[in-house]
Amino acid sequence: MSKVHAYAAQSAGAELEKFEYELGEIQPEDVEIKVEFCGICHSDISMLDNEWGMSAYPLVAGHEVAGEIVALGDKVTHLKVGQKIGLGWYSKSCMVCESCMDGDHNLCLNNESTIAGRHGGFADRVRCHSSWAIPIPDALPLEKTGPLFCGGITVFNPIVQYDVKPTDRVGVVGIGGLGHMAIQFLNKWGCHVTAFTSSENKADEARTMGAHAVVNSRDKNDLEKIANSLDFLLVTVNVPLEWALYINALKAKGRLHFVGAVLEPIPVGAFPLIMRQRSISGTPLGSPETTKKMLEFCVHHDIVPQTELFPMSKVNDAIKHLNAGKARYRIILQNDF
To answer: How many whole angstroms from its chain centre is CA 221?
Structure first.
């Protein structure tokens, strides 16, 4: 039985405070991870503020964990104590439903989230089912790896799912925690990449990351100039935009794909889809197997998130830094309990 030291919000929008709880006996198929680093994702902020109406308090956020296995359930044989491991949004799947049996564990209707109804990684310990404990290759720097298990796999998964080709012209809407990783992945995938951002100061940074062109995401003239030019358009933002212009940026059979949690309904006319055979879709993260492939891709192409490091004891300062839009581009908390 382990005592966990953590930082928790006691109510929606409250600052995080020190919090302790007992983990109880480890389950036969579970893994206990000593948290060394944990990224901060906008989903953490949404959960802390109860924007999605599913938060329970006290709430320990944090689902971009990189750390070391310190305990194993007695049925876990494919992992070992001392192994470097990552944990993302999902902490458990049912393992018996149609989706799980097809290898799509991320689509399981009975998935358990790392921070919904249980405590996450803004702590010195966290547990998960062994299927979602993903080994971290030695070639990746542990202090930068956490965001790959949420933001990274969120943008990598649709590249695989929708068979994006090296010859495709793709766009990435939003150059933030998700978008800056998407640009790197798609550039190394071999695509021509157009970055969409409303921040002028991010344009040069986007090109450094691998964007071949930059478009102002809120300039109607800029958007009209690229009509019928893109095969795939990946939306990483969570704010409403003039979606008709983005749909019109797609070629015939092009796809507008959402990974950003836009809460407002997306108004879509049928004719722009029908006449050019365009599609609109969305995906959650990715399966454990796809996550492993993403890590291999990162090693092969030397891809890591751009990060800023804060001690976990300064978590409230880190959240304010993120909310102020100052993060470049993912904040990492280092365990200093």
So the answer is: 31
Is CATH 3.90.180.10 the classification given to domain 3-149+305-334?
A: yes
- Around Cβ 28, how many Cβ atoms within 10 Å? 11
Residues 32, 38: Cα–Cα separation, whole Å: 15
Cα–Cα distance measured from residue 85 to residue 288, given in angstroms and rounded to the nearest whole number: 12
- Amino acid 218: pLDDT: 87
The CA distance from 259 to 226, in Å, is: 22
Furthest-apart CA atoms within the chain: distance in Å: 61
CA distance 228 to 40: 36
Q: Which of 103, 126, 125 is nearest to 114 (CA)?
A: 126
Count other Cβ atoms within 10 Å, centred on residue 228.
Answer: 11
CB 202 within 8 A of CB 246: no
Indicate the pTM of the whole model: 0.96
Whole-number Cα distances in Å, 200 to 6, 17, 195, 218: 38, 37, 12, 11
Q: Where are the domains of the chain?
A: 3-149+305-334, 153-282
Report whether CATH 3.10.20.30 matches the domain 153-282.
no
Q: Give kind and range of the element (H or E) at residue 135.
A: strand 134-135
Tell me which residue of 119, 240, 234 sits closest to 168, measured CA to CA.
234
**Hey, what long-range contacts does 90-98 have (CB within 8 A, 24 or more apart)?**
90/114, 90/132, 90/285, 91/118, 91/127, 91/128, 91/129, 91/132, 92/128, 92/129, 92/131, 92/132, 93/129, 93/131, 93/132, 95/131
State pLDDT tens for residues 8-66.
Answer: 999 999 999 999 999 999 999 999 999 999 999 999 999 999 999 999 999 999 999 99
Cis before 240? omega within 30? no
